[in-house]
Amino acid sequence: MSSPDVHSTPQPQNDSAEQLSAESQPPAPKLEGEALENALRQQLEFYFSKQNLQQDTYLISQMNAQKWVSVEVIANFRKVKSLTEDRDLLVRVMRTCKNLVVDETGSVVRPNIKMERTTLILRDIPSSTPPEEIKQILSTHEKYGDKVVS
User: Fold this and answer.
1) For residues 22 and 98, which has the higher predicted lDDT (pLDDT)?
2) Backbone angle region of 59, left / alpha / beta, with phi > 0 → left and psi within -120 to 50 → alpha
């Protein structure tokens, strides 16, 4: 038995290594029915999760200003393609995902993430107005007065 090469560099674990490993193994059986839909739903919900969207620069780059992205972009993701190439099935499963919104035509999808606004624009109030006075004005508003924070 030979000793390990102490000067070799460990190979990074990435898609290329994953593909090489997958090529040396027999293909996994194709999922069908409910199992396929569940696997597809899980993958789609991952793609559109807040955690993934914080780091997935490619998916974000494919979105428009309102965060809509073509279903075709998602359909061409490697993991989605490995599950199905049936666009009708893909859109049907997308419509069941809690964190996705599919438009009525089934051609675009966006994350279903509540966007909170954190900026209040004050008009006709001089910039020299002290913050305490603005808080006082806002705190007397019957609908929003209890939401004024320092």
Assistant:
1) 98
2) alpha
CA distance 54 to 46: 12
Q: Which of 38-42, 51-55, 61-65, 132-136 has the lowest mean pLDDT?
A: 132-136
Which pairing describes strands 108-111 and 69-70: parallel, antiparallel, or unpaired?
antiparallel
DSSP labels, 24-57? TSPPPPPP-HHHHHHHHHHHHHHHTSHHHHTT-H
Distance CA 26, CA 144 (A): 62
Task: Determine the Cα–Cα distance for residues 147 and 126; give it in Å rounded to an integer.
Answer: 22
Q: Dihedral (C-alpha) 121, 126, 127, 132: value to the nearest 10 degrees? A: -80
Q: Has residue 62 got a pLDDT over 90?
A: yes
Could you tell me how many residues make up the chain? Answer: 150
Whether 8 shows a pLDDT value over 70: the answer reads: no
Q: How far apart, in whole angstroms, are the C-alpha atoms of residue 69 and residue 91?
A: 13
Selection from 5, 3, 110 nearest residue 47 by Cα: 110
* Residues β-bridged to residue 126: none
Alpha-carbon distance of 136 to 138, in angstroms, equals 5
